[in-house]
Amino acid sequence: MDRAYKLFEEQQLARGIDLKQVHEKLKSIRIETPSWGYVNQGTRFKTFEKMGMPRNTYEKMEDAAQVHKFTGICPAVALHIPWDKVEDYTNLKEHAGSLGISMGAINPNLFQENEYMLGSVCNIDSKIRRKATEHLLECVDIAKTVGSDVLSLWFADGTNYPGQGPIRQRVQWMYECLKETYDALTPNMRMLIEYKFYEPAFYHTDLADWGMAFNMANKLGKQAEVLVDTGHHAQGTNIEHIVAYLIGEKKLGGFHFNSRKYGDDDLIVGSVNPYELFLIFYQILDAAADQDPAIQTTANNIAYMIDQSHNIEDKIPAMIRSVLNVQTQYAKALLVNLAEVRAAQEKQDVLGAEQAVREAFEMDVTPLLRAVREEMGVPCDPMSAYLQSGYGISILSRG
Amino acid sequence: MDRAYKLFEEQQLARGIDLKQVHEKLKSIRIETPSWGYVNQGTRFKTFEKMGMPRNTYEKMEDAAQVHKFTGICPAVALHIPWDKVEDYTNLKEHAGSLGISMGAINPNLFQENEYMLGSVCNIDSKIRRKATEHLLECVDIAKTVGSDVLSLWFADGTNYPGQGPIRQRVQWMYECLKETYDALTPNMRMLIEYKFYEPAFYHTDLADWGMAFNMANKLGKQAEVLVDTGHHAQGTNIEHIVAYLIGEKKLGGFHFNSRKYGDDDLIVGSVNPYELFLIFYQILDAAADQDPAIQTTANNIAYMIDQSHNIEDKIPAMIRSVLNVQTQYAKALLVNLAEVRAAQEKQDVLGAEQAVREAFEMDVTPLLRAVREEMGVPCDPMSAYLQSGYGISILSRG
Amino acid sequence: MDRAYKLFEEQQLARGIDLKQVHEKLKSIRIETPSWGYVNQGTRFKTFEKMGMPRNTYEKMEDAAQVHKFTGICPAVALHIPWDKVEDYTNLKEHAGSLGISMGAINPNLFQENEYMLGSVCNIDSKIRRKATEHLLECVDIAKTVGSDVLSLWFADGTNYPGQGPIRQRVQWMYECLKETYDALTPNMRMLIEYKFYEPAFYHTDLADWGMAFNMANKLGKQAEVLVDTGHHAQGTNIEHIVAYLIGEKKLGGFHFNSRKYGDDDLIVGSVNPYELFLIFYQILDAAADQDPAIQTTANNIAYMIDQSHNIEDKIPAMIRSVLNVQTQYAKALLVNLAEVRAAQEKQDVLGAEQAVREAFEMDVTPLLRAVREEMGVPCDPMSAYLQSGYGISILSRG
Amino acid sequence: MDRAYKLFEEQQLARGIDLKQVHEKLKSIRIETPSWGYVNQGTRFKTFEKMGMPRNTYEKMEDAAQVHKFTGICPAVALHIPWDKVEDYTNLKEHAGSLGISMGAINPNLFQENEYMLGSVCNIDSKIRRKATEHLLECVDIAKTVGSDVLSLWFADGTNYPGQGPIRQRVQWMYECLKETYDALTPNMRMLIEYKFYEPAFYHTDLADWGMAFNMANKLGKQAEVLVDTGHHAQGTNIEHIVAYLIGEKKLGGFHFNSRKYGDDDLIVGSVNPYELFLIFYQILDAAADQDPAIQTTANNIAYMIDQSHNIEDKIPAMIRSVLNVQTQYAKALLVNLAEVRAAQEKQDVLGAEQAVREAFEMDVTPLLRAVREEMGVPCDPMSAYLQSGYGISILSRG
């Protein structure tokens, strides 16, 4: 392996890549994992029951801590309220801390109570909107308590049929609820606004695309930003374009990573089109090298989060796989020689520019990642190490 | 209303439409409703609980009987096994008979047991394939008992990731299970094979499109035919083309009607693009007028079934709405002057042919349907009549 | 026919529809037709040559005047520069005037010169951007000369491969070109900004969706608005939702009407999913009845334009068909009882709200349109009247 | 580089990969390039004119010979008739031979004459169908003359509007034309039948999907097989599934390689989702290792062809890039340890099976390809070698 890395080093040196910076970037990236990714999840047809599932939020933290232990880059866990509600959040925070992890984004749930059948913050019934707002405010409080600086908002609001709801008015209602929530944020907090093309609403979704989330964020203020869930777009959508665009507008706040081939299939990120994930990181790294410091700041402050519901996979290995896939594509994107791309662009050399981007993707970053992991003190092959650790078997006793 | 129908009659006469035949066709069409459409259904996010849901198969029959009572064209109910399993099918049949309805297609369920997580008839484990085959054979027996002549097969089999399953072998495994089932059919029975683009499998579905279902049906024999579920296609797919093609091959056996704007959204049939439903019927009626008697026979023996899972709608009204939408588009399609279309085709008159088809769609068939309903002895406005009947309130006592 | 209208009138009266207003709205709607819709157009595979094509802009005006003559609602023709360049625009304007029509939107062409291969206003080469800007300014001048108050902008700018162009910078370059153009507008002029999902750029389009066009319009100012081309969206996109949203933001400026089943197929508007067109008008008319006068103003000042390239159809009949399809769906949308929809929404009655919208679509508006046409002094059946007029034969002498 | 290959060799040895076989497979794969890929091509908006384009079929052969010269795996060129029509095919064949290349598939053109506006082999006019059949027979003759054993058929036949054509009858008409053509084949020839989802037909395409092409091939006989064009599917379609399925049916005959993000965009193969191309080869190689010799034979006799129309790229480099992309993904697929995948499948180890496939994709095959190219006597870096060869400049004198 030593030889492999040495060879890799020589190659990158020859290509003009600053490997020191590559190492630093790889050591500093953070990918948040979701508490709901550690439990049984299903399709509308069936939720298959696995053994060893965490029985409460504390055990979810324990499972999540394993992912961090073996990858070294997942120290935070996103919470979903009320799924992760506990009596004593300070205690939960301490438990997490003792495991070497912390609380990440707080995700309110506004879709699993009967009252929300026809909408939460967009419901025509003001009492239901009030209830939804109270839940949002509760989540801001929880964030403050657990030390989280991200409120991550996804709404199931929408309609199934033409005429079902007053589309224009619903925008206004959502704004009012979010404004009240926004005003409750402390200055260090961010509100990330997610959009979704469809599901569970099948005619219209109130925040259907990046444009609607972006416009809402603009109206709310600086602390509101857009969250891109990679599975929430129409077929054919160029996601990296949206990413580049939002960074250009200084309004990209974060990601929910996952993959999908058809609808919002929640597959392991990077498993359908890994090149797309690479191209997303290429756009981010290109922006991080922009001359405008505000663009740089945006690119460097993106919250990376996994959001997947594994139906058939073993949960912890699936999460490790996801993190490794993200890390792999990020590493490859770090090998793009941006100056070379720019030079080809200047010369209007289409094939040259394309090659400068693609050739980084075709490289094997295994030696690089092994070297970085060694520096970080985590196993060179996190998946094997986890599988051999016995943790997976130990939790079977949970039932 | 009399005046309206008289006017309609004159117009159609002037257009050369044989209204007597139209009435007959409208009186003889049968649309089967699904037992599972009368109970709570949901998305993976939430199943909203409604009041008054049937507590068993007998009550589902009672609800389904209401749809028939008010529309007059829904005398059969599709069963889903084991959801509709009862101790005594003869008793169930009698109960249904007493309500004026009968048992329609039998639908096996091969996706809701933990063993089927990685497939049923395509599972790499022969014991699970055996179990699945036994269930299929059980369903053939139930069909014989309840007097149903249709076995309607949908498989959730598929994979979520490249490499997960041996794709070619799985085709063979499915064939073996279906062959054994096919051989158990009595000569009057049909096996309808459904296909689905995706979900719940997110990488590949073993019967992903009409071509795979068609090829399977061809290999099995004459009693096997393809079932088209209108919601199970890729975006942009021309469904009426597939319908016309399958009739041309004498292999179209039936429909599962529903609508979708995005994935397989299970919305009320005809609610997203009613013109598409009209065009499907135009193709069927065009085939019913073919010179080849075998084509005619195929076109006249299609099993029309609703397959929808209403998430937010009231179940019985949603089913009535669905039936009415189908009836409306069928009625409009009956007004296409096929000779006029053919004449325009012969003249290579693109706009003329298109107009000859479309103009039937733009007609108001309300007077026609009222007249036909009067002849059939059902309410002229089935929806209002049902809503005023008090049945919906009476079942609230079920809890 | 008299009887048919009388019956229609009674029905609408009973439904509470203000037929006088319906007539007025139908008489005042204006649909602009495009000069490029009267000439041979093709796919990349072939442009089929028809006889009788106009040989210059003057003859295009003559053909367009026929559409207005028979429909009464198409008095303006959109120009495409340089395709419609003439020596003396005042003379052209007079020619049009003598035919009873006028000049509509001015459409610059920034995609048919070799220099624009890698972009026009987004080209990395500042000389090419300058050239593009000069063309835009020239078009503003032409608009002033011919008395047009709409500059309608569509850009082919985009890339085919990752890395080919600097995505973020291109946004800025476009802004600079458009800002200069915007500043040249007179206060009565509007700049309509069109977006397109893909084609002719196949990796990214610089204005790929409504959000990017909207954001650009916001930055430019009040006179810049978004133009929705019904064919320029990803599969599954809810266009009427975008329409409602943009009106809510007071930024919807106009439409390019056409239909598509797959890509941007440029079929006759309303020929693929007429219900979608109806729902677009339902949203517009709902907004026109908003309590906010600014919303009303936006809804009442939308520029309706056809943008189709007929590959196989006869040009003038295809344009008449298109106009009639728009008129038909507009007429149906005028029959939606908005108060009834609102009432159902308030009651959270999903099926009731849907029915209130759909039932208007299912009505036959032929008697209404005949009556309105009579009032307007145009033929009751514009298509037949045109086909019988002999104009189509007379122009064959053009060659 | 030597060190890089040595390292690579060790790694693969450790993984149990038979590198000797890998080398042999890489040396024996053949990728045909299309004569029409060497000339100016465009979108419907514009064909940009490049300098140095071949002025006749002889010069196209010369350009194609360059691709073979630098890659070593492209010795055949597909012809398009009548575009490539010459007076003396024997002479053309000799010219090609002198350049080290030969004639590949013969592609009839049935879409660029005015008579074909409403169809060729599916035209309602029997005279036009006759003309089309004559052209097909002419192409069979040309194939015999130039020594080609593949007739590659793509039809633009379809309709733009409902009602425009008699869908069922058109299937029969196509069959009759193809049957006559099929009967003219010599026993060593193959007829490859391509399908396309849409374009240039925008309502229905007579051969819209693999199922229709497959059924046609089945009816014609053993020498008829399906051709998969990677750009001709609905969004979301799992192409490798279709590939596996068709091999399982022993009916996959060949490929037209290209990439698309949206419609049929004709981008360089492997430039949008290289993983998809890799997975196609994984399915082929898995089949080549099947126990059934007939499956093996099918998998080993697939005709690989590029079919791209480069709009903005330099033609010869774009073709070299395409070939290299195919070669790269083929090489990666050769590194999949099939036994490992099977073992994981047997254990129902979803993540393990996925990893066994994906890990081959993540490897850098540059050292392998360099080694293979050295053995073959072609440049290690074909693209650089071509760019430095001066050929591109030399042809500019063509004008």
UniProtKB/TrEMBL annotation, chains A, B, C, D:
Gene3D superfamilies: Divalent-metal-dependent TIM barrel enzymes. Its EC number is 5.3.1.14. InterPro entries: L-rhamnose_isomerase (IPR050337), Rhamnose_iso-rel (IPR013457), Xyl_isomerase-like_sf (IPR036237), Xyl_isomerase-like_TIM-brl (IPR013022). The gene is rhaI. This is L-rhamnose isomerase. Pfam families: AP_endonuc_2 (PF01261). It comes from the Bacteria. It is an enzyme of class 5 (isomerase). SUPFAM superfamilies: Xylose isomerase-like. One of its GO terms (molecular function) is metal ion binding. Residues 87-265 form the Xylose isomerase-like TIM barrel domain. Keywords: Isomerase, Manganese, Metal-binding. One of its GO terms (biological process) is rhamnose catabolic process.
